[in-house]
Each structure stands twice: as structure tokens, then as C-alpha cells.
Amino acid sequence: MSNEVLTTTTKDYEARYQNGYGLIYPESHIIRVHRHILQWELKQEPDAMFDFGCGSGQHAWYFAQQGYTPHGCDVSETAIQQAKSILPNHADNFFVNQAGDLSIWDRYEPNTFNLWMSNQVLYYLSDADIRAMVERVYSKVKPGGAFVVSMKSYHSWYAQYITASEGDFKKIEIKTARVQSTSYINFKRKDELAPLFAPFKPLHIGQYGEHIREDEGATTHWLFVGIKEA
User: Fold this and answer.
1) Topology of 2-154+190-227 in CATH?
2) What is the pTM of this model?
3) Peptide bond before 70: cis, by omega within 30 degrees of 0?
4) Mapping DSSP to helix (H, G, I), strand (E, B) and coil, where does residue 60 land?
5) What is the pLDDT of residues 189-228, one digit of tens each?
6) For residue 164, how many other CB atoms are within 10 A of its CB?
7) Exposed e or buried b per residue across 107-120, where buried means at least 16 C-beta atoms within 10 angstroms of its C-beta
8) Using CA atoms, how far apart are residues 145 and 230, in angstroms rounded to an integer?
9) Domain boundaries, the chain
10) Which residue from 45, 64, 106, 209 could staple onto 219, CB 3.0 to 4.6 Å apart?
């Protein structure tokens, strides 16, 4: 089932990026994580960072403006081309990669990154695939480094369109005036996050989202911020 989800998601997002999908500006919750947690709380000095599922590169671009050396990957070739275009000095650090392919971590030495992040991506992976990735990623994060990921919450309006359960995934069939889509999402409860992302130590588990249209509901995500203990 996980491979089916990844194949479907890859095709879907490539089509979206070819039709103009993607961020123009970095999202506010990412900026707040940087300013409120990485800068203020952790006093983190800019170093190498990795954005898993970087899309068109806006979050990597933001961190590059703060002095970080950005790296990233995405399933969409179009998205990676866009990321390279806005980060030409770091173009060699961005590449196309299937989400379940763990061989990408062989590119990097242990203790390379002081920030590893994945925004609104990991819920397209099964629990087993997430744990396997976290195990590999943990060695690539420096002691004291941050691990920042978001996961879809059952409080999201998507949850009201669950039609079936298939392994770790819920089948979502949305038919509204604005959205007509079928997708598979690995929703999580708050108490499931720390075990899923171990051995990173939880620092904060917050949430973010907005409620723009009353006929759709809130776009609620969990925001897990962990650290690799020194």
C-alpha cells in the first residue's frame, strides 16, 4: 500500500507543479519555528540544513537568507528545477528522490545537519517507512541539532472525508465545489508523534492551520520539534 501511495502522490504533485502549484513565500509557521525556537530558545548558529520534500524551495531559500547552507529533495522534477532556479549557488544540493528511497542518506557524512525538516510530506509514508527514515536521518543530524516535521491531524477537515482504512493510511475522497480528489493520508494523534520520531527528543509538539472557508474547515497539522541530544 505504501508504494501505491507514493506512486500516486508523485504523479499528482508532478502534475500540480507543472500547472503552477507551489509556494511563492515561506509559510509563517516555518518562520516562527526558526525565530521562536531555533534562534531564541536553542540559540542555533546557522549551518547545513535539509528540507525533505522541499517543493519549489521557498523554505530552503528562507533558511539560506538566514545563513544556512540549504539542501533538499522532492519527488517532483519540476519542483526541483524551480528550487535550483531560486538557489543557483546551491543548485547541486537539490535533487529528485522518491520518498521511500533511503539511499539518499548515503550521500552525507554523520553529523552533517543542524536542522532537518519536512513540511506536510511525511504523512504520505507508512509508519514503517517513517521509522526507517528517522533511523537513517538521526545519524546525519549533529548533536544538539533540530528535527522539525509536520503531520496531518484528525482535526483537519480532510478527516471528515475518510471512507476507508488501508494499513496506516486513511482513504480520503473529497467532493466539494473547490476540491475533487482522492488521496491516502497517514493521520496521527498527538500521543503517537514522540514514539514515531524517536530517538529525537520531543522539545515542542504544537499545531498550526487556518480556517479560511467555513464549508471546508480547518487545515490542522501537528508540528513536532525534536532535538538530537548532545
Assistant:
1) Rossmann fold (3.40.50)
2) 0.94
3) no
4) helix
5) 999 999 999 999 999 999 999 999 998 999 999 999 999 9
6) 10
7) ebeeebbbbbbbbe
8) 8
9) 2-154+190-227
10) 209
